[in-house]
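Re: that backbone. Tokens:
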């Protein structure tokens, strides 16, 4: 089946509610009345066109971007994410007859994506906590790498957005976790699935899921305390600040001196972590104006961590 079959809606009988509302549903983990109505329409659509792969493929169009967003943040390499996305779409089409509406269609689709990512990550090394710092030192010591980075940053479409860099750092730290814990954090804290939904996606009980999530959060919170000055209140983050200085004034987005909790909220490691998560959820790491730099960083980090 060609990509055109996935990207184009070719069959009648699918109302604009499916096309327009599914994108909203993707951003909202809550079971709102709209979400339930759209879910019912998706189920009806599948029952009607289940044997027609062109029609079912057209239903996947709104899911491509959210799926890529998830996969990219899990595997941290654009080419791998693109390849795995195609694998996920093929598996969805091959197994569509198994969907019975017992779970949200979104949960079913992201369940397939999750297990594709887990299979991929189990074959890869977990990253060291200091991987970013080592990469920064290596780049700083090499004039050719600095020149390449500066040239990339001076492209007309480039803008250094600190919030995108925070999302980049979050994915880097998440790669230090076992894949199952990394998926727990991404599903619950970034994508907004409930604990019950995320546990079913990972094929574990809810208590097991909650334990994995708590362990992952504790590990990431501890790692951040020693790495990121934006969140541990010890001062300016040298990596964020250094990149902002390199890029030059005409290519800088909004500044962010420090991550702070909301007024009236106690300044604890947990609350600071939750504040960071709010930035990570909103940042456009995959296609924002800083993504070319982060693609380069992810590539270099992956090569270094796999080769050790």
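Recovered sequence:
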């Amino acid at each position: 089946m060609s990509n055109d079959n996935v990207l184009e809606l070719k069959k009648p009988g699918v109302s604009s509610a499916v096309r327009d509302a599914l994108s909203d549903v993707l951003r909202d983990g809550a079971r709102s009345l709209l979400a339930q109505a759209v879910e019912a329409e998706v189920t009806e659509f599948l029952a009607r066109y289940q044997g027609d792969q062109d029609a079912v493929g057209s239903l996947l169009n709104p899911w491509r971007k959210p799926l890529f967003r998830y996969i990219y943040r899990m595997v941290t390499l654009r080419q791998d994410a693109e390849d795995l996305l195609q694998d996920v779409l093929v598996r969805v089409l091959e197994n569509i007859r198994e969907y019975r509406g017992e779970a949200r269609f979104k949960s079913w689709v992201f369940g397939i994506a999750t297990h594709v990512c887990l299979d991929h990550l189990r074959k890869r090394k977990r990253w060291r906590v200091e991987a970013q710092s080592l990469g920064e030192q290596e780049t700083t010591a090499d004039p050719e790498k600095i020149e390449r980075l500066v040239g990339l940053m001076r492209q007309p479409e480039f803008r250094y957005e600190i919030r995108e860099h925070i999302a980049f750092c979050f994915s880097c730290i998440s790669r230090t976790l076992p894949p199952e814990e990394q998926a727990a954090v991404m599903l619950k804290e970034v994508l907004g699935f409930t604990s019950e939904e995320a546990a079913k996606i990972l094929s574990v009980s809810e208590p097991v899921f909650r334990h994995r999530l708590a362990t992952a959060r504790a590990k990431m919170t501890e790692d951040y305390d020693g790495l990121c000055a934006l969140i541990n209140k010890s001062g300016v983050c040298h990596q964020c600040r250094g990149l902002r200085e390199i890029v030059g004034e005409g290519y800088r987005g909004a500044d962010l001196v420090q991550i702070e909790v909301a007024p009236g909220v106690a300044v604890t490691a947990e609350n600071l972590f939750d504040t960071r998560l709010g930035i990570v959820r909103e940042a456009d790491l995959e296609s924002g104006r800083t993504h070319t730099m982060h693609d380069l960083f992810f590539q270099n980090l992956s090569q270094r961590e796999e080769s050790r």
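The domain at 3-121 is CATH 1.10.1740.10 (Rna Polymerase Sigma Factor; Chain: A). Confidence is low (pLDDT under 50) at residues 1-34, 231-236.
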